[in-house]
Amino acid sequence: MYYTRLPDPSEPGFDEQRHFSQFKKHNVVFNAWSNESHCDDHVGCLSLKTVLSGEEWYTIDRRRLAVRPGQFLILNDDQRYGCQVQKGEPAKVLSIFFKREFAGAVFQDCLRSEEASTDNPSYSGNDTLEFFQTLHPIGQRLLRQLGDLTAYLDRLGDHDGLTDERLVFLLRQLVRTYKSDVNGTGRIDAVKASTRKEIFSRVCVAKDLLHSAYREKLDLDTIGKAACLSVPQLVRQFKYAFRLTPHCYLARVRLHHAADLLRRTDLPVMDVSWQCGFDNPSAFGRAFKAQYGIQPAQYRRAGRSFGA
Prior knowledge:
Layout: E1 2-3, H1 16-21, E2 28-34, E3 37-44, E4 47-53, E5 56-60, E6 63-67, E7 71-75, E8 79-85, E9 91-97, H2 100-111, H3 114-119, E10 135-137, H4 140-156, H5 160-186, H6 193-212, H7 220-227, H8 231-242, H9 246-264, H10 269-275, H11 281-292, H12 296-305
Parallel strand pairs: 1-2
Antiparallel strand pairs: 2-9, 3-8, 4-7, 4-9, 5-6, 5-8, 7-10
Helix pairs in contact: 2-5, 4-5, 5-6, 6-7, 6-8, 6-9, 7-8, 9-11
């Protein structure tokens, strides 16, 4: 099922129970602009959340994280969450909800050998995946799949069978994300697999905070408390997981957003530095040149010269 507008619970005649019952029967795609929306408390099915423009805030396990362009979030079956597009900050929201049985069949196909699937094609076991509830970057393959899916739906309209064919390959891409996270747990310095998984989930909380609150002043104590890790443990395990220390990672995030503002806006360089969390414009200029090889103003001119 395909929707180009988000549901409005305040509309006369809106049947919330009927609306959400569809998620058990069909795969559902929302591709819609929202000027303001919120869902304070919802338990949903496996879903992929991203935005094509603006930002959408999610509340998961009492923590808030922002989904912005170039990022996506996977929510598991029966995950309780809230979401919000803030008033005055419109967002183009793309959410894909996967029917439980459909996703399970794709996961079985990914997890079982070709021989096992051929010998027992009607197998209906409980093979499933438990995803880490954390932000991920959208790679080129996934970006193409999402773009092709929405272009197809906009052009030809909703057709469950044809849409589901595309969603098979989209779910297979999410399995690759799952395996990448499993590899991330293997980089954690701990003996027990259960401990590695728990610590990885905590450093993911720290990572999500850096992405979501990059404009704010974030010291190690604040980051460590959010992730329930001591400062030494945070610094050590974060670097094992993501190859950078928290503040080096934060600097990368801030510089990425600064580069985006330089390309898209006419904000003065000083304002760009402040909006991206840099207190000192000179320090921002040095950090930007170290990352991109040229000064911010040169970067802006070069981007416009090539039509960026």
